[in-house]
Amino acid sequence: MSNPPHIVVLDEGTINLGDGVWDELRQLGRLTLHYNTPRHDPKIIRERIADAHIVLSNKVPLDAETIRGATQLRMIGVLATGYNIVDIQAATTAGVRVCNVPNYSTPSVAQHTLALILECCNNVGRHSHAIRQGAWVDSEFFYFADAPLVELSGRTIGLIGFGTIAEAVGRLCSAFGARVLAYRRHPGAAPDYGPFAWAESIDQIIHEADVVSLHCPLTPETEGLISETRLGQMKSTAFLINTARGALVDEAALVQALRQGRIAAAGLDVSTIEPMPAQSPLLCDLPNLFITPHNGWASEESKRLLLKITAENIRRFLANDPIHVVA
């Protein structure tokens, strides 16, 4: 590998904090920034990394053929925690180190999850829109409620998956007086807040929780985890929250459950396909479905920490002491 190494960023627009935030990486090598790279055009991807020693990508995929064709490539840095954009087996075979960035967005995603929960509870956006349509002007009383308002206090928050983000969400909900019920395949010590209990199964959470919040990875086993059947087993007053991965939920079944009143509301920060396609079943006129564009991770603080950890990943790799290695 030449000195300095050529570092190529394929989608720096996902960070979008201005050119100066990349200065630390410029000190580590010759930096090439691409604002965006078409994710479905392998030819362009391969052209852009042809002479790269280190490639950084948030969501631009690096498949087996792309990795094999990049003969100078020595490291892939994923600008995220999840690394399913990389063909790990191909990288391992090619001797390419793959590093990710863990735990950079925990406060941001936990806060966003709580925001979606509170939106389901208080319908802030719905009431704000109604006021702009004249509903308060025409109200018979000093207030109006266009939808039921509910409190978190005394309710059960069910967390499916219990990593650092879920633990932070539980802590926030506990501060509101909620009981936290969590499922993890191998439960360990309980967190230092309560009331808290480990669920014996996912289905226990589905049946008991007033809020079901997803925090598990997307795997062949978890794809479609929230199915039509499980939606039918939730309380009719329950909320579904997903800030993890879109494909955990059967989106068409969710829309039907909301439309038929089988659950009360849903808050989503993710979609099975992203960006969301025009034909997505989620693009409907349901007032009890709240969607944000996968920006729960994207606070300014999280982005800056992401780049700081990425720079350290590269620095340690160049010193033959790699960290946050996934392959």
Short description:
31% of the residues lie in helices and 14% in strands. With 327 residues, the protein is an alpha/beta fold. The chain has a seven-stranded parallel sheet, with helices on both faces.
SSE layout and pairings?
Blueprint: E1 6-9, H1 23-26, E2 30-33, H2 42-48, E3 54-57, H3 64-69, E4 75-78, H4 88-94, E5 97-99, H5 106-122, H6 124-132, E6 156-160, H7 164-175, E7 179-183, E8 196-198, H8 202-208, E9 211-214, H9 228-233, E10 239-242, H10 251-259, E11 265-268, E12 289-291, H11 300-318
Parallel strand pairs: 1-2, 1-3, 3-4, 4-5, 6-7, 6-9, 7-8, 9-10, 10-11, 11-12
Helix pairs in contact: 5-7
What are the defining features of this structure?
327 residues; Rossmann fold; 2 domains; seven-stranded parallel β-sheet; 31% helix; 14% strand; elongated
Overview of this protein structure:
By secondary structure, the protein is of the alpha/beta class. The chain folds into two domains: 6-104 and 300-318, NAD(P)-binding Rossmann-like Domain (Rossmann fold, 3-Layer(aba) Sandwich); 106-291, Rossmann fold (3-Layer(aba) Sandwich). It contains eleven helices and twelve strands. Helix 5 packs across helix 7 (164-175).
Give the N-to-C terminal Cα separation: 19 Å
**CATH class group of the largest domain:** Alpha Beta
Q: Would you identify the CATH H-level superfamily of the largest domain? A: NAD(P)-binding Rossmann-like Domain
Q: Count the helices. How many?
A: 11
Count of discrete domains = 2
CATH topology of the largest domain: Rossmann fold
Average pLDDT figure: 97
* Helix-strand makeup class: alpha/beta
CATH architecture of the largest domain: 3-Layer(aba) Sandwich
Strand order of the largest sheet: 8-7-6-9-10-11-12
SSE string, helices as H and strands as E: EHEHEHEHEHHEHEEHEHEHEEH
